[in-house]
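User: I've been going back and forth on whether these two constructs are worth ordering. Before I decide, could you fold them both?

Assistant: Sure. I'll take them in the order you sent them. The first construct and its structure tokens:
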Amino acid sequence: MKKLIKWFNYTASLRTKILISISIMQGLVLTFFACYVYSVQTLIIGKMSDNEAERIEYMKIFLPARVSCIVVALVMILLSVVISDFLISVVIKRLKKLEHQADGVASGDMEAIPKTDAVDEIGAVTNSISVMADNLKEKAAQAKAADSTKTDFLARMSHDIRTPMNAIHGMVEIIKKNPEDKRRVRDCIRKIDISTSHLLVLIDEILDMSKLDNGDMEITTESFDIGEVLQQSLEFAMGQAEERDINVYMDSSDLTVTKVLGCELYTRRIFTNLLSNAIKFNKDNGSVTIEVSENIPDRKRVVYTFSIEDSGIGMSRDFINTAFEPFSQENTGARSNFTGTGLGLAIVKKLVESMGGRIDLKSEIGEGTKFTFSLPFAIDRKVSDSEDQRAERMNSGIKGSHMLLVEDNALNLEIAKFMLEDKGVIVDTATNGKEAVKLFEKSIPFTYDLILMDIMMPEMDGLQATGVIRNMMRADAKIVPIVALSANTYAEDIKVSREAGMDDHLSKPIDVDRLYEVITRLKGAYDSKRIERPYSQLFTGDSLK
């Protein structure tokens, strides 16, 4: 019985299933009808006579009628089966056609299923599959375009990375052969610095785009002067402009509020990126005009509107529609003149929008481009230190500090050690987590003001070493600042380092200003905690209770 049910469910054709179902139903109806007729006739005969012989005679009389009813029922069943088979054939034919069309879609022919005017269930399924095929066709076209764009992007990146790398390699060779020519050596060092900065921009743009797509970019809030950011960004770009005799004009005379609360890093990034593009894609002896205005809706908020207009090569109307998309670059036929990842504008748009602003552009081929963007900020009513005062406080807080630097790469270790010693820091070094743990364990409590810890190291990594140090029974183990040094800067990596017991996370290559700022902040907090500890706790674990 189980095999019969399995055959009916999974093997028998749809036509067979329907015919068997109809036949069973008709058989049940016929049986019921025959029983009903027999019962009625028997009841009538019983009423007509009490004599057995007479009842038998009556039964013979009614027998042809019974047979006729059964024959008519059988004929009706046969006729219904024929009609049902015809109707089922029509349905099966449409289903077979739909199956054939679906196979065409499966093999890649997205035009195999046209829409139909039929309004029944099969028509609805056909139209649904047709819509699905259209969507798949559209997605396939988008995927193909994205794949083509990424292929072009990788080809550009290969070119753009090799160009500064070749310059660095060439400058090093020149220095090796001309060590006594100080003027030439200085010029080579300057060009190496420019090339490394270009490499960092390329890498940062790729990482930033990935972070923005994953929602990992953190929008911080700090006090800063928007006027200083504009001026410093302008000074940074002037070197590029002067090389090509491009005149840069900025009008920010309407600004009455410059002290704001917001993300200084991303504000600087947006402005610098757009200004650099205005110069890079400009004509020699061209011009860049910057205008800044403000709108103060109330005492707490200010909205700045920036416009950056150049007299450069401009953009085609088709490219304007995709200018803010990742990896997007217009084919100008002069690829070697305009290098980059094609991510700059995409990053700018995402940063502007994440800060609550908006950005638009207008451009004409050969006429130039104008970017207009607005950014809202909270007004900072507090008076803060000047740049010189902050630098002086930072230097005084770092000088004389004793730090443990843990780094397995010899070159990175040398660079970080130089940065610290240049500020008057006493530096002990370790090349892996196990060495760092031993040095900390042997030191007198509170010897180290801060530990800079690489993450990926042999024998014992930075996360494990941090865990061991934090669990030591000594007064400074829980509170000594430990800062991660890592090339991994995603939110998940920072979260892991925090969970391991680290106080902050610095990305490689190390940003000098960021390094000094973190050290000053953490060391100041550490000094406050250390003052609160009585001398009797220095060599005990009492402070851990």
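The second construct, handled the same way:
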Amino acid sequence: MAEFRARWVAIAAARQDRVRISSRRKYWFFVGSILTVGILGRPLPALRFGPSPEFGERVIGSRSSEYFVRIGNSGLGALSIQNVRITGEAADDFSVSANDCDHVAVRAGRGCIVGLFFAPHQEGNRSARLVVGSDMGFLPGQLIVSGVGTARADFRVEPSILAFRDQTVGSLSEERATEVSSIARRSVRILGARIMDEAAEDFELGTNTCTEPLQLGNKCAVGVRFHPRVAGERNGRLELRDDTGDAPHEIKLVGRGATGDLFTDPELVSFSATQEGHRTGAESVTVRNSGTADVHVGSLTLAGEEPRDFLLDKGPCESASLRPNAACQVRVQFQPAGVGQRTATISIADDAPDGPHTVRLAGTGTDIERASAQIYAATYSFGRQPVNTVSKPISVIVVSRGSAPLRIGSIEFEGGTPRDFRLKTNCSFRTLQPKEQCKVDVSFTPAAAGETRAQVGVLHDASDAPKFFELDGLGFVPTSETSWCCAEGRFFEADEGSCKSRGGRSYPDAVTARKACASTTGTRPALSPETPSGLVPGSPLQTKFRAIACESLVLQWNPATAPGGYLVSVSRPALGTDTAVPPRLLFSSRVSTNEFHIPSPLEAGYYEWSVASLGLSGERSAAAAYNFILCAPRTNAPWKSTILSPARVKAGATVPPAIQ
């Protein structure tokens, strides 16, 4: 009796434990459900596929009946479907026909339908994945579809898919053909060829040599051309029917219609009120091809009511071919010839579907006396400078070119690394009368190796000039590789390799090199300088050459006899077509080797450069013919200067710029 009581008590206790555990589970399940709904804030969808289609066996090149797959939402929230596509190794053997599921929101308990065809191009088991992109989780939903391709008994085709390259909308592609080979024991006759599907109008039948019966092993061909009417992916089917009674043979046709899409930024260029006869700074207009086909730009002209009041720098845009995502820039200035509102347009001839394009120009001419300023320098770059040494100053000129006095405020460093630069000026807090000028001298004293930049603010009351300019320099630590060279009776600073190439001898310091050259003066015959040749890059003709990147440009030429080194000069032709205006000299530099690295990027536009050999006393040979360079627009430029002169390379003379 006692044993029975003990067993009953143990069983009862175990039952009570199970009840307590079950109660706790139910409690936490309820709490978890409440928290889940509370945290997520909305019920979730659930994607479910209907039965997978059974395509079975199909003869190669034939198409199955259409099978429909239901994509349902078995969750509680709405299911947003972005797209339905087929992927996998045999994706070309399956195609989507009817599709109600792209870009739809499926409510809870509802679904949409996708139709599928199976048309095998190869023999054997063929499988792919039907992929549904939706907002349910990170991975898309997938359904495996499969079928079996079996060999034909009449003929085979090669290739079974005709894929065309991107073709400009409205143009006709070259013909592509599929070859038909007879594999039947008796003769086979192709009764007809036609193009099917919604995009059938985008494909055209070409040459067809399959008009006579084919004996075993004989071949013929059927050609197709691609002529897209609209942009985007275009798919079709070439159907071949024969007299054997088998299912028609289908060849898949794939192509994409491409179109250029040209746009300008901005579409309207507005200039501030400008005194009659005065010229503003330049404004840039970007011309970009955002389409999928090349756009050919023709002539750029000024038109409208007052085209003579504006000056256009066409840069590399005229007669250019812009690939997709490519761009070029033009620049325009305003110089009113009268008082009041002045308007014009830039007309851009192009072959884009919505061409030609125009850019509107507007400005106001006034007879009221206004202050006008021009800030320029021969260069804004100090080039290489040994650390802890002081460079020669760069002089930046501020000119009052208006009809009213120009009031100047403070001139001081505003950004960059001003500790490496020194500033001296007679412009601060001064009023310049018309045609009067002042000067800002800046020197470079690098404290460490590396590139250094600084920004100098120039406060003034003119509306047509920038209120700052930027300078840069490169500090370097002299090493033992830098020495002094005595060659042909003169001494100069050069590395040992350059010195030996000129038949000289290296010395550790300038004093020793000077003494060595003084003792050897007259012992060597003087060599006459030769005219350099083989100038690259560029062309002696200002037409028929492509734009090049000028962000890190190296000028080179063939070595020539040059006892005194070489003199390199780079100029920029004046704006417009007026040949009476001489080119603007950007810089002139003396070098000892047959190449020169331009230390700063060049802006987009035309440039001309030449080189002359120098004698011992500095006499020049006949300079080589000018080479013309077309610089492409700069990309990823971290410091885009807004100064009136874009040239930031060393110059030998101070020349005011003609255009910005």
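Notes on the second construct follow. Residues 300 and 348 are 5 Å apart (CA to CA). The first strand starts at residue 47 and ends at 49.
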